[in-house]
User: Fold these one by one.
Assistant:
Number 1:
Amino acid sequence: MTHIVIVGAGECGARAAFALREKGFDGDVTLIGAEPHHPYERPPLSKDGLAGAEPPKYVAAPERYEEVGITVLTGAMAEAIDRGRKTVHLSGGRSIGYDRLLLATGARPRTFPGVSEGAARIRMLRTHADALAIRAALAPGRRLAVVGGGFIGLELAATARKLGAEVVVVEGLPRVLSRAVPEEIAAIVAERHRAAGVEIVCGARIAAIEDGGDAARVLFADGGSLAADLVVVGIGAVPNTDLAEAAGLTIDNGIAVDETLRTSDPDILAAGDCCSFPLSHCGGRRVRLEAWRNAQDQGTLAAANLMGGAERIASVPWFWSDQYELTLQIAGLADGAAATVRRAMDDGAFILFHLDGDGRLIAASGIGPGNAVARDIRLAEMLIAAGSRPDPAALASPETKLKKLLAA
Amino acid sequence: MSANWVEVCAADEIDEEDVIRFDHEGRTFAVYRSPEDEYFATDGLCTHEQIHLADGLVMDDIIECPKHNGRFNYKTGQAKGAPVCVNLKTYPVKVEAGSVFIAIS
């Protein structure tokens, strides 16, 4: 009987496992995860989930796996792949043979140089255990320093404020959210944080972060310093490629896959945060995404292709972030945009449409209270997928329904 | 069975292939008008994370949650795949004298 083994029990691996069954795969499915839990959703960890719900919010109820015939190995580290024998070696000496293998090994937080792993007052946020440890250190009057003004750091800052902690965000670049978000939207987010009492320091040059036992300290290159009860470092993530690299698979900012998620070994696929892939909407440019929806979409696609299909990646990158009452949503990748069109909406919400030099819509970034921009961002995503060149005046006019542009 | 018919709005207040939110006595509903000009009603909140579906997008007979793109067939309430796995409850709808009514059990 055909055996499909999935290394990595996060959103992507779990989705792939269930999608195999939904698509009628009748062989064996084994899902291998290093964490003690069944697969759970990571997005809540920096948001309301930081409050430390126990158990974490599962991708699917643990009993569902048994019901559909998915073997889940938790607390199991995949240590090596023997491609010749088509075997995965696990910690503890166990080995599992595969016919086809999916690597959904995810990413891990980038560490700050010189910070030791055991520092109790200097943490990162990726796992449920991380969230519990951070939550335990936050309380009214406690001081949190967040290093890194990206999505994770800012979401954590908002959550920590809700819990009553004093919060300072330290960002090395001139503004927050500079990697993924247009300046106008980033400015609104920063202003909202300041209104909530968060101190934001941009352009900071950090020399070191130290755990002094009774307090942690962020030391700046100019000689200044900042003390906090807890420092959380959120300076991006690096793909988990060690296993693939040791097995001799091609690595290129992640495990390199083609448009069908195949690695340089046709019996091994990779999907989610760990892989880089050619994105057709961006002229085949190789990208790697760290995103919940991408993990789902690629997990589902991987399932089809593990079963012998050759389906190509078609989805448009999509991200969201919740901070206070604001939700930010982005479809597509805006770098390379030649023009931006602004569409004002009710309640201060707005969307920026990013067009390339040929007038093709390549991205849309929106922000507003609640889900004010969600519907139009979703329609923008479809316009991007369709390769459409909408009339900029129509995009700018709130009276023009985007659905009409899609039908045009 | 005693149907409790509640007036929602004028029939033309919902665009074709669209949805509105309707709150009644502490409960929230989503009321739809299909591309075929028929009306439907479901519970108002997504079964994944309690988000108002009326902020989402209606395409043919599908409502998509605005938050995480969970999809349901709003005519039957059927969940259409990850991240949603629990179906939506549906409610009978009628149009009388130009107004939409839903039967709240």
Number 2:
Amino acid sequence: MSATMKRRDVVKTLLAERGDLLVVTGLGSATWDAAAAGDHVLTFPMWGAMGNAAMVGLGLALARPERRVLVLTGDGEMLMGIGSLATIAVQKPANLAIVVIDNEHFGETGMQKTHTAHGMDMAAVAKGCGIADSHVVRSAAELPALVKATRTARGPYFAQVKVVAEKLALTLPPRDGGLLKARFRRALLGESADTQ
Amino acid sequence: MSATASVDWSLAVHRTLKDAGVKIVGYVPDGGHKRLIELCHADAGMQTVVMTTEEEGIGLISGAWLGGEKSALLMQSSGVGNIINCLGMVAECRFPLVMLITMRGEYGEFNPWQVPMGQATQSVLEDMGVVVQRADAPEAIESAVNAALRLAYNSYCAVAVLIGQRVIGIKSFQEQVNQ
């Protein structure tokens, strides 16, 4: 079944009316998608450390259990850190949702097919790791339920959202890592974060 | 290795982590960290995270600091090879990082496959901007960890404490099996 949804629409929908949601985005297209939806101080956009987005989300979720955390990443990035799904399942963070925007291709390097293009069922892997609330999302009709789950589901929650493989104009967030860290911490923790 | 010596430094390091306010500890196990891992797991005030690979720990500590919490990572020297690219994020973002690394591939190593990474551990870390402090006697470990925590969290540095194989003292395959 070929995908019909467009990634920028999905991410824009996921980040609309985000309230006090904390967001981590993985290298690379998910980071550009989130920037296209609007740069935000409570988004930590990763420009490197491929494979580590879900674990940054876990660390944040454990540190701030009272806040909802959403990791937005791509299939290639998630594949590189696929073991972290097992690690997250062990910790059972109730406030963590991971949404993989799955275009079945490595979008930054020449659109080579990823493993999901060859039939890998990432939601089944997540479920097998112990994240029971894991789903494949294929249609726009399912998006409202997806958005709701990222805000309210008892985590960990995992969704693999099938989207069209398309090359899009880059929309870039700031890339200075020190700035991205400092502005996120200040927005989350207040000015006292600057002198922690 | 005497069990008593192991218990002593592990207890002291656990207390040092507590006193510094470390709330999250990530690890891929090593025999040398066995006692410390057990102490962390038994501590209700610590979230102790078993990982599938050391690389996950870099994301863990980064996210924890974004959320305002202190953390530490426990790993074996072989695991250092698994974190190199992600140390780039630590450097670029200046995330405080404390790693307690038990050494293999050096003092009396019996497994030749451990030697290349063990011998490269310190220089590879230094190449990636990590401050390396060695502790080659049980009584030196607590103060080294204390200093590492201060350096990391007061000066926003990445710091590794290398706990020498002389301290851990694995001498043979059979001793590893019996550990």
